[in-house]
């Protein structure tokens, strides 16, 4: 496997809005990111992925861009951006931006022009139809909205304020490429490319057996034939001309398709975020916690990638509840389960991503009332469920499980006023557990989750085997133990994570040196609840 800087990196995702506010308006900003760079450097991360900071009306917290070359008011100015970037680079770190190019805000000047009249030169930059298809949008409700002025419908796969660009139009593609190059020339080191497998659509109706007005249409708008041609052009016109790293957000891509996405030979991105593993161990009411299924999926990705491709490794992001609350046990085994889950994913082959707050074990928000939620997807879901007559209690139960706001509560820096996040009123409530669950409380505690992350990062960097070695699942009796080896030259390592609160009989076959553990006392012949260990095998 070719050695490259981004394969050896650890990337930290900053949900800028909730990271650190310096202006007192309750919204995290770029100066806040700059202020916390020493913290990130001490943690050991090499690269930051910054969630959208472009000019935006913030219907979907920046995933609705109204100017790709400017900064949203709440987050500061372009001078603040330059200053932050300089701070990142001067520490030897790198920055990747979130690139939202499937859609723009309905306030983007392109769309304002496009909707101004049917014969406007930008009319065709978006998708207009006399007769809409029967698709449902990803955030609920119809995927088309009627514009009375020009008497046509426009397409939006997300909210009606996130308008799909018409990628069939070469002028649109050229404008996007120019913008991407503009940021690269400004000095950014790569991109996380948002919702990238929706660029191509098949504009036909979904079969509608139930007679519903709108039906989910993922297959008409996801990984549609012809998508890879768009992605190839995007790569060749932009990323491929520079030494930058790219990660595509690629919903519904399975391990068997990874070659066309990420192989060194034909991949369009360096890595993708596939959802398969996370979705298999879901947060939905009916999906079980199922370590066996998760093992199988991760294993398929590891095997299919080995030797031909690289990929991202992640457990959390801004769209998912906190894993310590869903996959782990945020009560009796909060520290143990956060660290066992960390150990499980961190040492596979790939580039690990850490989502802000994951490194201190932040948990789901205990929001009881709908008025506490801010996320447009959650609020839309609530509205549409109510329209369908679902009882409020049932809706709330579901929201408490799946809401994206769980990951969006402010970063918990200390136990002081507003958790050290802001001097003002946070845009979304703090998780009340900030009084004991915060960076300050964990910083100097060698047993803390934060210290465990630091040790994991240092260990990964100290050894080529954990970077470039092959990965093999290891046989263990207990189904809830995730064990795998990494092997490189003469070095072999074993990673064992017990992902349940039972005990489990297990002993190391042969001899090995224990390099990392999340329990202080190691019991021979047995793994304790949520125990994780890393061995260098003899
Ligand atoms: C991606 C983002 C999500 C956003 C959506 C629409 O899935 O991660 O936060 O809402 O795209 O841009």
């Amino acid at each position: 496997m070719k050695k490259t800087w981004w394969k050896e990196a650890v990337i930290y995702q900053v949900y800028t809005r909730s990271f650190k506010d310096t202006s007192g308006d309750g919204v995290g900003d770029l100066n806040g990111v700059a202020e916390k760079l020493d913290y990130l450097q001490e943690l050991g991360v090499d690269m930051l992925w910054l969630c959208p900071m472009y000019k935006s009306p913030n219907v979907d917290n920046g995933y609705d861009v109204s100017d790709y070359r400017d900064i949203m008011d709440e987050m500061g100015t372009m001078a603040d951006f330059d200053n932050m970037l300089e701070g990142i680079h001067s520490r030897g770190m790198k920055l990747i931006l979130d690139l939202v190019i499937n859609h723009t805000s309905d306030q983007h000047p392109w769309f304002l022009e496009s909707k101004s009249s049917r014969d406007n030169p930008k009319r065709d930059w978006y998708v207009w139809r006399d007769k809409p298809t029967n698709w449902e949008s990803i955030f609920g409700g119809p995927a088309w909205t009627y514009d009375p002025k020009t008497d046509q419908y426009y397409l939006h796969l997300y909210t009606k304020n996130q308008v799909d660009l018409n990628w069939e139009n070469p002028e649109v593609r050229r404008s996007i490429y120019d913008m991407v190059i503009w940021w690269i020339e400004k000095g950014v080191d790569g991109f996380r490319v948002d919702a990238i497998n929706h660029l191509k659509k098949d504009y036909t109706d979904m079969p509608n057996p139930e007679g519903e007005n709108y039906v989910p249409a993922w297959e008409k708008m996801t990984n549609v034939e012809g998508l890879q041609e768009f992605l190839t052009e995007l790569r060749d016109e932009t990323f491929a001309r520079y030494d930058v790293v790219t990660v595509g957000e690629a919903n519904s891509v399975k391990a068997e398709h990874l070659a066309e996405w990420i192989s060194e030979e034909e991949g369009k991105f360096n890595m993708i975020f596939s959802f398969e593993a996370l979705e298999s161990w879901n947060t939905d009411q009916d999906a079980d916690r199922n370590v066996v299924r998760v093992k199988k999926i991760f294993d398929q990705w590891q095997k299919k990638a080995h030797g031909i491709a690289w990929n991202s490794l992640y457990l959390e992001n801004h769209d998912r509840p906190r894993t310590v609350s869903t996959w782990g046990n945020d009560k009796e085994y909060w520290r143990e389960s956060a660290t066992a889950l960390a150990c499980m994913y961190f040492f596979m082959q790939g580039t690990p991503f850490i989502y802000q707050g994951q490194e201190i074990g932040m948990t789901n928000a205990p929001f009881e009332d709908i008025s506490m939620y801010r996320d447009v997807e959650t609020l839309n879901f609530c509205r549409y469920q109510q329209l369908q007559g679902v009882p409020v209690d049932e809706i709330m139960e579901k929201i408490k499980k799946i809401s994206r706001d769980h990951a969006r509560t402010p970063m918990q820096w200390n136990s002081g006023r507003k958790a050290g996040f802001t001097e003002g009123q946070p845009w979304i409530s703090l998780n009340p557990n900030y009084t004991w669950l915060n960076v300050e409380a964990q910083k100097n505690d060698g047993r803390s989750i934060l210290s465990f992350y630091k040790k994991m990062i240092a260990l990964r960097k100290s050894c080529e085997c954990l970077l470039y070695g092959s990965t093999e699942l290891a046989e263990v009796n207990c189904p809830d133990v995730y064990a795998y080896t990494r092997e490189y030259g003469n070095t072999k390592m074993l990673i064992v994570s017990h992902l349940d609160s039972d005990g489990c009989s297990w002993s190391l076959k042969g001899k090995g040196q224990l390099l990392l553990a999340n329990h202080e006392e190691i019991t021979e012949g047995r793994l304790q609840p949520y125990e994780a260990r890393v061995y260098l095998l003899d």
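The longest strand covers residues 481-488. Residues 255 and 301 are 5 Å apart (CA to CA).
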